[in-house]
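Lab notebook, bench 4. Still working through the backlog of constructs that have no structural model yet. Next entry is a single chain of 247 residues. Request: give me the structure tokens for it.
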Amino acid sequence: MAPNSQIIITRHAQSEQNVHLDYSVLDPPLTSLGQKQAASLAPKLGKLQDEVDLVVTSPLKRTLQSTRLAWGPAIERLGGLKTVVCLPQVQECADWTCDVGSAREVLETDPEFAVFDFSLLTPDWTSKRGFYAPDPATTAKRAAWVRRWLRDRPEHSVVIVAHGDIIRELTGLAQGASEAMWANAEARIYHFDPAGLTSDECFLLQEHTVAAAGDFGPSSIEIERLSKRREADGRTNDGTKAEGQGV
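Model written out:
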């Protein structure tokens, strides 16, 4: 990859679990608002639509939809949806049902998604075991794998559409995952840290935020973290003090 290459990381638009906080639905799609967010992000990306050399996406439905709607002009210029790399390694971190993708044969028979190339999806991509296990050490290793994969690509400008928690792993540094909050349908530009370009970690450094078309929508891990903080603070889900707690 060229020394001055750029990685344009995009978080998916609003999906059903972002609204209803129901993590029991398998591979939920975007909401109607999420579809509008993703579509409205497209013109905000401006000249990047003309510069992108490769589009990469997580193969979950909400990222596939966000990719098609937000990066449509670039994808059409590059030859269509079949040119998009559906990379299972950038799936979301947690093992909640909503963070588990659909089987390859399901996606390939769905008229909305069948045009994508799912040849990289192996049977274990939905297992949340082994390489895809949700524990922090494994997700950090997976994120490092993705960074190396990106580093070794020949393209100058690469888009990657993914999820809040794996994005924080991808953009983390030596001290651990990033704690930055991402809006739905938000795009930021990164480049590789020259000091560690040849290392196994090959960390990314943020250049700037390009645009955001949605509001903050907490990921499943963020919701779990917030719930634990509320419990520790003696607060209920609406933020008020639980009965018997001080003010």
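Notes after review: The chain has nine helices and six strands. The longest helix spans residues 136-151. Flag for follow-up if needed.
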